[in-house]
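Priority: low. Protein: Oxidoreductase. Input follows.
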Amino acid sequence: MSADRARNRRLRPAVAGVAAATFGAGAGELAAAIIAPTASPFTSIGGLLIDLAPPWAKDAAIALFGTGDKVALLVGVAVVLVAVGALAGILEARRRRWGRGLFALLGVFGSVAAATRANASLLAILPAAIGALAAMAALSMLLARVPAEADRASVADVDRRRFLAWAGGTAAVGVLAAIASTALSAGSRAVMTVREALRLPEPATTASVPASAELGIDGLAPVITPNREFYRIDTALSVPQVDPADWRLRIHGMLDREVELTWDDLLALPMGESVTTLACVSNEVGGSLIGTAVWLGYPIRELLARAAPTADADMVLSRSIDGFTASTPLEALTDPGREAVLAVGMNGDPLPVEHGFPVRMVVPGLYGYVSATKWVTELLVTRFDRDRAYWSDRGWSERGPIKLSSRIDVPRAGASVEAGTVVVAGVAWQQHTGVEAVEVQVDDGAWEPATLATAISADTWVQWRFDWDAAPGRHTVRVRAISADGEVQTADRAPVAPDGATGLHERSFDVR
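Result:
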C-alpha cells in the first residue's frame, strides 16, 4: 500500500467524526426548533461561554470583531465542534466507545448549558441530548463503512469513494437539518409580523432636531443614527423573540406597592419623544460603539412614583427576558430632569427586534451596561450593597457614568489631503452634562477652538468642525472636549475596564 493511500486511510476516522458531529449538530438544532426553540445547542453553549468568559476576553472580542463578536463566537464554537468530531472519530477507531463517549460528554455539556439559561423550559435538555445521540449513531455507522485493506487498488478506490459518499451525505443531512431549523423558527417570523403591523401611539410630546444640529459634512456621523447603523452590543447570541401580547413588566422590591404592566397598559400611558445618545462602555477612544436616536417612551420615574420606593433604596436592578441584569442608580431613574424611559419606538418605528422589541430602557448619561436593558421584563428596587448586576459580578463599575469624550471622523485615518483649507470634523459628548466647546491641536501646537453645531440637548452628542490651513507634510491632529460644567477632557489614557476608556483621539494625515 502506497504512503498516500496509508495516510488517506488514517484520515478516514477523522472524516467520519467530523461528518457525525455535523449530523448531530443539525439534529440538535432541528430538535430545538420543534420542541424547545430557546434551547438551541449552539446558542446555549455560546451563551454559557459568554457568561463564563472573563472581562478581558469580552473586551478582546469586541476590540477584534466589534459588533460581529457574536458571529465570531458562533464560528469559534463550530470550529471547536469540528475538532471534537475529528478527535471522536480517531478515538472510536482505536478503542470502541471512546469516541461515542466524547460525543456523550458534549451532549451533557450542551444540555447543562441549555438548562441553566434564563427561562429554560423542562424540555431544554432534550435538543443537545438528541444531537449527541444522533452523532453517536452516525459515528458508528460511518466507521463500519471505513474500507478494509484491499488486495487491488481498484477495489480500494471503490470502497473509498463509497465511504466518502456516506460521510458527505451524512454531513449534508446535518447541514440541511440546521437550515430547516431556521425555517421552522416560527416564533421569530411571528414576532416580526407583529412588529411590522404595529402602529405606535401618537406622542403626547414631540422632540425636534434643529437643522443646525447637522453640519452636512461627508464622512461625518449623522446626528441621528439610522436604526440599521445603530451599534448592537449585548449578551444575547440568539435575539429574544418577545410577542407584545405576552410581555409583562414587574416592578417590585423595596417599595410600598408592586406595579405590573402589560403591553396594552404601557401603550395606554402618554408617550413622549426624547433624543438620547447611547454609548457602550467598551467603546475605545475614537470608537464607533455610540449612536443617537429619537426614542418614544414613557418616563420610568412616573412608574417608580406609583410604586413609591422606600427611603433606603438606591438602585434598580433591571432584568431582561434573557437573564441579563443592569444596576442603575435610583436617582438617575427618578431625576425629573432626565428622560429615562421605557422605550417602545426608535426613530419613528417600533423598536427593532435586535434593539429590544417590544420594550427597552433608555437612560441618558450612563453607559449601556448599567442602564440600557433590552427586552426588559423586571425592575427590582433594591440597594447596591444587596444585589449585583451581570457586569458588576465580572469586575466592572456598578454605576457607569459616561465620560467626556470626542472623536475625529474626517479626514479618515491615513488619508492623503491637498494642502490648503482642510475640514476636520467629528462629534463630542458627555450625556446629561453637555459639551460647551471643542478644541483641536495640530501636531504639538496650541489648542484652537472648533465650531460647534447646535446641540439637540445635553443628552446628545454634538457635531463640530475645524477649518485647518494645512501645509504639506505629515501631520497629527488631536481633539478634546470641554463640558458644560467646565471639565476639560483628560489626555490620560485608560482602558475601557472597569468604567470606560479615556484619552484623546488623534489622526495622522499626509498633506500633498
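The longest strand covers residues 473-483. The chain is about 35% helix and 20% strand.
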